[in-house]
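Troubleshooting log. The previous run stalled partway through. Resubmitting the same two chains, unchanged.
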Amino acid sequence: MSAGLATAAPPKPRSALGRFFSAENRYLSPLFITLILLVGNLSFGLLESFSRTLLAIGTALVLEIVLGRWFWGKIPNLASGYITGISVGILLRSPEYWPYALCSAIAITSKYAIRVHGRHIWNPSNFSICAMLLLAPEFVAALSIQWGNTVWPMVVIWVLGAFIVYRVQRFHITATYVASFVVLALLRTLITGHPFLAEVAPITGPMYQLFIFFMITDPKTTVGPKWAQSLVAGLVAVAELILRLAHVVNAPFFALTIVGPAAMLVEMRGAPWQTKTRR
Amino acid sequence: MQRNTFRQISLIVFLAAQLAFPVVYKRMEARTKAATAGDPSTALARYGFRFQESAKAAGIDFMHTSATFDPKLQHIMPQVASMGAAVSIVDFDRDGWPDIYVTNSGEGSHNALYRNLGDGTFRDVATEVGLADVNQPGTGVSTGAVWGDYDNDGYEDVLIYKWGKPELFHNDGGKHFTRVTELAGLPKWVNANTAVWLDYDHDGKLDLFLGGYYPEDVDLWHLKNTKMMPESFEYAQNGGRKYLFHNIGGGRFEEVSERLGIGSRRWALAAVAADLRGTGYPDLFVANDYGVSEVYFNEGGKRFREAGKETGIGAAPKSGMNAAVGDVLNQGRFGIYVSNISEEGVLVQGNNLWMPRAGASGANIRYDNLATAMGVDLGGWSFGAQFGDLNNDGFLDLYAVNGNVSLDRNRSYWYDYSKVAGGNQAIISDAANWPPLDGRSLSGYQQKRVWINDGAGQFKEVAQFVGVTDVYDGRSIALADFENRGVLDAVVANERGPLLLYRNTVSPDNRWIEFEMEGRESNRSAIGAQVRVTWNGQQQVQEVSGGSGFCAQNQRRLHFGLGKASAVDRVEIRWPSGKTQTLAAPELNRIHKVVEPS
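Second attempt completed without errors. Output:
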């Protein structure tokens, strides 16, 4: 059955709430991540400081405007740049100011500079955080702390995050990655002999929550069909397994940096799931 | 098409420039450092001082041993038993020469009291005076000691705090020490890592703050279970309780912490008491591991009020391990230095230098962390740090020690540590979930930091160039003028390592002045007395301290470097009793004994 049949009933108009929690709402993710930022910092002092995060956001937005205008001839929708800036502001940790500005700048510039067949292939904040971790480890680290000392903030973020990625039709990516992580944590336990809870511990932290809800699900840097997206999410978890066995501390970021673009390039070269090129 | 290609290429060049920035920045920093570095042979001319490690030559041959806890912790033993090396300075026999007390932490190991013989050498007299054999199995092991004359008899008594039973020893005329723990009413067991003497109510008798780390119902040698670790790496509040012992005379103390507003269960690692707001009463600053620091404002000696959040100090939780105060900018106000953890690419907390905000004072005091701006933020896995004018140029410098667990140089525990450290409460709080250390290092073999203060808001790191080259796991550092020659030497206690004595040689061109204070109406140790020296249009304030840094206590005598000054304009003293005293133009380059006027 297709939507074009004359006998089909007209689609039911969606409520305002339904439209708000839909894939078409480009501001849903920015709102959610802002909520995380505010709650996280006001409740737990999650950030190094508000000023550093604002610097990251400001840099991202200014560069998005300047480069978008120069590259496309118009100012692009700033939701994506905002998410990039706020992700950098939360995920990067440094007592210095300049890494926040530089990381945001690298993220936005990479989006315009590294394009294949008109598409950028790296999630911008993922690419830039990896670049900073590799090039300036003396000055930066990735977010590694908890949401307070109870389980409840984590549960709230997981439930709310899962609901939102479900509404924007990205839940399968998150679910596949999380399931893969847990199964592979079990495998790591068998290989290393370390407690299972130690192996599964990282995914209980805020860094992973941002990673699975915002980074790995980025529509612009994921492949076409759902099954392929899930496959790639699983492959990211496998790459992370390998990196973790090599004791790479920021394994998920590097895993996505390796697998994400590789999957995109395979798709562009004529993978079975190939779809129309997106900008 | 051509235009798009041009744009693309331009953007790639722009991106490449951004990616190159950290590399260029680091090279420029390294080049600047190399250009101004020199070596120990030129340090005296370049920086005005140099250190030479001389413990053995001075007769000091002390090696710290760590504790061995319950076998349930065997897999992470070097990490959980990574503290206990501590050093404090005291002139216990009142012969005018500062002595050194150093703690040991192996079960049955002996602490040492190095008596200064006045000729540049020391002799361990701990056994003779009864302060050596204090780590007997079943009583816990030492983590530090602080000295204060709690009964005002003129001789400094000592509290030895432990993972275990805290012990108070009375100094019997500088000849022997008598254990008075029960009379004092100290608790049976406290897993303490910090203590300071202070007279919080100005009654002329020294009171005592004792800060718990592990909860007091945890016996690290006989664990009921392994759920004794912090519930969070940054928000833990399941640590040991805090004690404030009010000195009620007759060698007895009453515990008043809850009544006076100190009820925290954060994991205290360091504390310092000082009048931060100019009220005349000592405030209390506590640096906590696994969380934010706390500052307790003293409200007229009647109550303490925790003001971490309102002052800015209580934001951004880190791993506080040091608390030292110093008038960093010669503005008559104390900055507070807190050490934390920085490990490349894994955890870059940066140390904190809390500086009072301009224009904010008294009840409205606010602090900003200026460690990065002033260049004292990155110190590795930092522990003890102390302010002191190392080159007598008139500005307080900063000496910080670091290094957590140095085992296999080539294998790091950081990956496994970071896995669990980021985990939820249910995971991190159970030691059974922690992967085995397996002989690996955790921020080991680190180079120490000696930052010299240019007086204009910038510090420069010169440790390697002034002769501080050791890479032991530094814990506790104390500064003292061991030879009464107007220079600050440094003594460093290392975990599972030797006690180091860095003898300082300072350019003779720079002048100095020192004050040996003795209270009368105030406590005899003069702890809390403030001295403000004014010279050449600048001033510096220092306060006699009952313990600062990490498990450390500097000499009680106050040392001021004066640069090229030919005279000081005046010296103002404010005693804890509230009395003030002015010394007009005291002679330079000498130690002044000052007794509180009646």
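Takeaways: The radius of gyration of chain B is 24 Å. Chain B has a mean pLDDT of 96.
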